[in-house]
Design a protein that fits this description.
alpha/beta; Rossmann fold; Ribosomal Protein S5, domain 2; 9-stranded mixed sheet; 4-stranded mixed sheet
Length: 449
């Protein structure tokens, strides 16, 4: 047997025979790590050996398969989180929870353990914290229970064996980047370790019908650290987003084999742990003052309509290149909207520093936020403000036209519930509550006073 080594990209998993500064597949720099592999000598190739050892699959006609009974689900104390999960944590499913450090992943999971452990056996496995640290968190969150057990381990083999015992209905693994398999010599967190450790745990969960929740780290860009294949292996991928120092935090499913990916759960961090926000619109607008640069946007977080304040500030630039800053809004989209404002209206923004903020730590990906951002910038530059009775929504095209918005009826219903009198929106919406607008320039002239 001849021992060889290869260089594997830690971002995409592509292997090379020699070290390279940049991965030619994903363009990541300095991501190649050397790993030892075994290459057997012999006349038969690996493919030929695989064909010889394989056997014909047992198959049935799909028309003869009977739908299995719906499996039971483990309910958490958060109704919205249950909805995001498709009705709760499905037995035998493997969920991946990813988020920034310090945002509250361990807190959320301990609160889930506290609820599930009232009726089911739960195991919390930590590869990062000691028993004392987890005990303190459990005491703070009221999660002490005889049905809740703890183990400290970084061995994927031991964790999989424990899951295979069938003693637990729910197992929490914190986190996948700390685990390692005994058969692989590379360090924890590498592509091979994350992939194989995850695969080992998933097979154990499926074999014993045990629900497993795995914690995943993220990179500084906000993407899940490690190979993309891990997201394909699991059943549910949850992203925990928000400001770690305050504001609202959201949990949304970017992949869910058992439910919709359009739902979102909104939380705020209190001394007693995470708490669901039942009426985020009222909470976001509670401290609002109607000044220039302030516009109320009717947006959507998943399927939930929310009213959020968009703030803009414009100041004279002291440098030759004006500064554009956005918090909670895509900066590239902001630059595009500023270009549309300059080209399609009479506003001169080339000598202005422009700052846009979404209040409450929310991060918007709604295209219907365009009109509100444009009106906020115009209001800040002109020193004028919009009436308190208006909410705004609508997409802005490059020609300055106002385009239709998704789920307009839900946005309108939320605005009515909060006491607003009118909504400035696309002319394609036929509702007496909506003031129809077709052109960005006309909208600014008529309503920013």
């Amino acid at each position: 047997m001849k021992i060889k080594s290869q260089f594997v990209c830690q971002q995409c998993g592509t292997s090379y025979t020699k070290w390279m500064g940049q991965c030619s597949n994903c363009s990541a720099w300095n991501s190649l790590v050397e790993q030892v592999i075994e290459n057997t000598d012999g006349k038969k190739t690996a493919i030929a050996k695989g064909q010889a050892s394989g056997k014909k699959l047992d198959f049935v006609k799909i028309s003869t398969i009977q739908p299995s009974d719906v499996k039971a689900r483990l309910l958490t104390e958060f109704d919205d989180l249950n909805t995001v999960l498709g009705g709760g944590i499905l037995m035998g499913s493997v969920s991946l929870l990813a988020g920034q450090p310090g945002i509250g992943k361990s807190t959320l999971l301990m609160q889930i353990c506290a609820t599930v452990a009232k009726k089911h056996n739960v195991l919390y496995v930590s590869g990062e914290e000691s028993a004392g640290q987890v005990k303190l968190r459990a005491m703070r969150l009221g999660a002490e229970s005889d049905k809740l057990s703890f183990a400290a381990s970084t061995s994927a083999n031991d964790i999989a064996k424990t899951i295979e015992s069938g003693d637990f209905d729910l197992v929490i693994v914190d986190s996948i980047q700390t685990l390692a398999m005994d058969e692989i010599s590379s360090a924890p967190g590498t592509v091979s370790q994350v992939t194989n450790s995850g695969n080992l745990i998933i097979r154990a969960a499926k074999a014993t019908d045990t629900a497993v929740v795995i914690v995943g780290h993220v990179t500084k860009e906000g993407t899940l650290a490690g190979p993309k294949v891990l997201e394909h292996l699991v059943d549910v991928v949850l992203n925990f987003e928000g400001d770690r120092y305050g504001g609202f935090k959201t949990v949304r499913a970017v992949k869910n084999r058992f439910g919709s990916t359009n739902e979102v759960a909104i939380f705020e961090m209190l001394n007693s742990g995470l708490s669901e926000v039942q009426n985020p619109s009222a909470a976001l607008l509670a401290e609002r003052t109607n000044t220039d640069g302030s516009i109320i946007l009717a947006t959507l977080e998943g399927n939930r309509p929310i009213l959020v304040e968009i703030q803009a500030l414009a100041t004279n630039s002291n440098y030759g290149y004006p500064k554009r800053t956005a918090s909670g809004f895509d900066l590239n989209r902001l630059n595009l909207l500023i270009a549309v404002l300059e080209r399609r209206t009479k506003l001169k923004l080339s000598d202005k520093d422009i700052f846009v903020n979404v209040v409450g730590g929310m991060k918007l990906s709604d295209s219907a936020a365009d009109l509100a951002v444009c009106m906020a910038i115009a209001s800040a530059v002109a020193g004028r403000k919009l009436g308190e009775e208006y909410v705004v929504f609508g997409e802005v095209g490059l020609g300055g036209e106002i385009r239709s918005a998704f789920r307009a009826d839900q946005r309108i219903a939320e605005a009515k519930k909060l006491g607003f009198k009118h909504a400035i929106g696309p002319a394609t919406i036929h509702d007496k509550f909506v003031v129809p607008v077709k052109d960005l320039r006309e909208t600014l002239i008529r309503y920013v006073k």
